[in-house]
Amino acid sequence: MSLFQQLYSVLRAEQTVASQLLEILTTERLALIEAESNTIADMNSQKQPLLAQLEQLARQRESILQSDGFSPGKEGLEAFIANQPTREAAQLEAVMKQLRVAAQACRDNNQINGGIVNVNRQYLHKAMSVLRGQETSVASYGPGGEYTNQIVRQPLIGRV
Q1: Is residue 138 part of a domain?
Q2: Average of pLDDT values for 58-76?
Protein backbone atom coordinates (compact mmCIF):
# COMPACT_ATOMS: atom_id res chain seq x y z
CA MET A 1 0.00 0.00 0.00
CA SER A 2 1.49 3.36 -1.03
CA LEU A 3 1.86 6.26 1.37
CA PHE A 4 -0.85 8.09 -0.57
CA GLN A 5 -3.24 5.15 -0.06
CA GLN A 6 -2.32 4.90 3.62
CA LEU A 7 -2.89 8.60 4.21
CA TYR A 8 -6.10 8.61 2.19
CA SER A 9 -7.37 5.66 4.22
CA VAL A 10 -6.53 7.37 7.52
CA LEU A 11 -8.16 10.65 6.45
CA ARG A 12 -11.32 8.82 5.36
CA ALA A 13 -11.41 7.03 8.70
CA GLU A 14 -10.98 10.36 10.52
CA GLN A 15 -13.83 11.85 8.51
CA THR A 16 -16.08 8.86 9.27
CA VAL A 17 -15.34 8.98 13.00
CA ALA A 18 -15.81 12.76 13.08
CA SER A 19 -19.22 12.34 11.43
CA GLN A 20 -20.17 9.73 14.03
CA LEU A 21 -19.05 12.11 16.77
CA LEU A 22 -21.16 14.87 15.24
CA GLU A 23 -24.25 12.65 15.40
CA ILE A 24 -23.57 11.97 19.07
CA LEU A 25 -23.02 15.66 19.84
CA THR A 26 -26.31 16.50 18.13
CA THR A 27 -28.15 13.85 20.12
CA GLU A 28 -26.40 15.05 23.27
CA ARG A 29 -27.59 18.62 22.65
CA LEU A 30 -31.20 17.46 22.34
CA ALA A 31 -30.81 15.45 25.53
CA LEU A 32 -29.34 18.48 27.33
CA ILE A 33 -32.25 20.63 26.20
CA GLU A 34 -34.76 18.02 27.38
CA ALA A 35 -32.73 17.22 30.55
CA GLU A 36 -32.62 13.50 29.72
CA SER A 37 -29.86 12.42 32.06
CA ASN A 38 -29.74 8.79 30.90
CA THR A 39 -29.28 9.83 27.27
CA ILE A 40 -26.64 12.39 28.28
CA ALA A 41 -24.69 9.72 30.15
CA ASP A 42 -25.05 7.31 27.24
CA MET A 43 -23.83 9.91 24.73
CA ASN A 44 -20.86 10.72 26.96
CA SER A 45 -19.85 7.07 27.14
CA GLN A 46 -20.18 6.81 23.34
CA LYS A 47 -18.05 9.92 22.77
CA GLN A 48 -15.01 8.68 24.67
CA PRO A 49 -14.06 5.79 22.36
CA LEU A 50 -14.55 8.00 19.30
CA LEU A 51 -12.27 10.67 20.74
CA ALA A 52 -9.64 8.03 21.48
CA GLN A 53 -10.02 6.71 17.94
CA LEU A 54 -9.57 10.22 16.49
CA GLU A 55 -6.38 10.65 18.53
CA GLN A 56 -5.04 7.31 17.29
CA LEU A 57 -5.85 8.22 13.68
CA ALA A 58 -4.13 11.60 14.07
CA ARG A 59 -1.01 9.81 15.33
CA GLN A 60 -1.14 7.47 12.33
CA ARG A 61 -1.49 10.44 9.97
CA GLU A 62 1.51 12.16 11.56
CA SER A 63 3.53 8.94 11.33
CA ILE A 64 2.75 8.56 7.62
CA LEU A 65 3.81 12.14 6.94
CA GLN A 66 7.03 11.76 8.92
CA SER A 67 7.88 8.46 7.23
CA ASP A 68 7.95 10.34 3.91
CA GLY A 69 10.05 13.19 5.32
CA PHE A 70 7.24 15.69 5.93
CA SER A 71 6.72 17.55 9.16
CA PRO A 72 3.73 16.63 11.29
CA GLY A 73 0.77 18.97 11.32
CA LYS A 74 -1.06 21.08 8.81
CA GLU A 75 2.05 22.30 6.98
CA GLY A 76 3.37 18.81 6.46
CA LEU A 77 0.00 17.58 5.24
CA GLU A 78 -0.30 20.46 2.78
CA ALA A 79 3.24 19.81 1.54
CA PHE A 80 2.50 16.09 1.13
CA ILE A 81 -0.62 16.87 -0.90
CA ALA A 82 1.26 19.41 -3.02
CA ASN A 83 3.83 16.71 -3.90
CA GLN A 84 1.19 14.25 -5.15
CA PRO A 85 0.07 13.83 -8.76
CA THR A 86 -2.97 15.96 -9.63
CA ARG A 87 -5.52 13.15 -9.35
CA GLU A 88 -4.30 11.95 -5.96
CA ALA A 89 -3.94 15.51 -4.68
CA ALA A 90 -7.56 16.18 -5.66
CA GLN A 91 -8.70 13.06 -3.79
CA LEU A 92 -6.81 14.09 -0.68
CA GLU A 93 -8.15 17.65 -0.91
CA ALA A 94 -11.71 16.35 -1.22
CA VAL A 95 -11.48 14.14 1.84
CA MET A 96 -9.72 16.93 3.75
CA LYS A 97 -12.57 19.31 2.90
CA GLN A 98 -15.10 16.80 4.25
CA LEU A 99 -12.98 16.29 7.36
CA ARG A 100 -12.68 20.04 7.96
CA VAL A 101 -16.45 20.49 7.64
CA ALA A 102 -17.13 17.63 10.07
CA ALA A 103 -14.48 18.86 12.53
CA GLN A 104 -15.86 22.42 12.47
CA ALA A 105 -19.39 21.13 13.02
CA CYS A 106 -18.13 19.03 15.96
CA ARG A 107 -16.40 22.08 17.47
CA ASP A 108 -19.52 24.21 17.02
CA ASN A 109 -21.81 21.59 18.53
CA ASN A 110 -19.45 20.92 21.39
CA GLN A 111 -19.32 24.64 22.16
CA ILE A 112 -23.12 24.86 22.10
CA ASN A 113 -23.40 21.82 24.37
CA GLY A 114 -20.86 23.34 26.75
CA GLY A 115 -22.89 26.54 26.85
CA ILE A 116 -26.04 24.61 27.70
CA VAL A 117 -24.19 22.76 30.47
CA ASN A 118 -22.84 26.05 31.81
CA VAL A 119 -26.27 27.72 31.86
CA ASN A 120 -27.77 24.67 33.59
CA ARG A 121 -24.94 24.72 36.13
CA GLN A 122 -25.59 28.42 36.85
CA TYR A 123 -29.31 27.75 37.36
CA LEU A 124 -28.53 24.85 39.67
CA HIS A 125 -26.04 26.92 41.66
CA LYS A 126 -28.55 29.75 42.02
CA ALA A 127 -31.32 27.36 43.07
CA MET A 128 -29.07 25.72 45.65
CA SER A 129 -28.08 29.14 46.99
CA VAL A 130 -31.75 30.10 47.38
CA LEU A 131 -32.55 26.83 49.12
CA ARG A 132 -29.62 27.30 51.49
CA GLY A 133 -30.59 30.90 52.23
CA GLN A 134 -27.34 32.20 50.78
CA GLU A 135 -28.71 34.11 47.79
CA THR A 136 -28.56 37.84 48.30
CA SER A 137 -30.39 39.05 45.20
CA VAL A 138 -33.44 36.85 44.89
CA ALA A 139 -36.13 38.26 42.64
CA SER A 140 -39.55 36.85 43.44
CA TYR A 141 -43.10 37.80 44.41
CA GLY A 142 -43.99 38.99 47.88
CA PRO A 143 -47.04 37.97 49.97
CA GLY A 144 -49.20 40.58 48.24
CA GLY A 145 -48.20 39.44 44.76
CA GLU A 146 -45.80 42.34 44.17
CA TYR A 147 -42.37 41.84 42.61
CA THR A 148 -39.61 42.10 45.22
CA ASN A 149 -35.86 41.63 45.64
CA GLN A 150 -36.08 40.62 49.29
CA ILE A 151 -33.08 38.91 50.81
CA VAL A 152 -33.78 35.36 51.89
CA ARG A 153 -32.25 34.99 55.32
CA GLN A 154 -33.37 31.49 56.29
CA PRO A 155 -32.66 28.29 54.43
CA LEU A 156 -35.70 26.78 52.73
CA ILE A 157 -34.35 23.25 53.03
CA GLY A 158 -35.77 21.59 56.12
CA ARG A 159 -38.52 24.16 56.67
CA VAL A 160 -41.26 22.12 55.09
Answers
A1: no
A2: 95
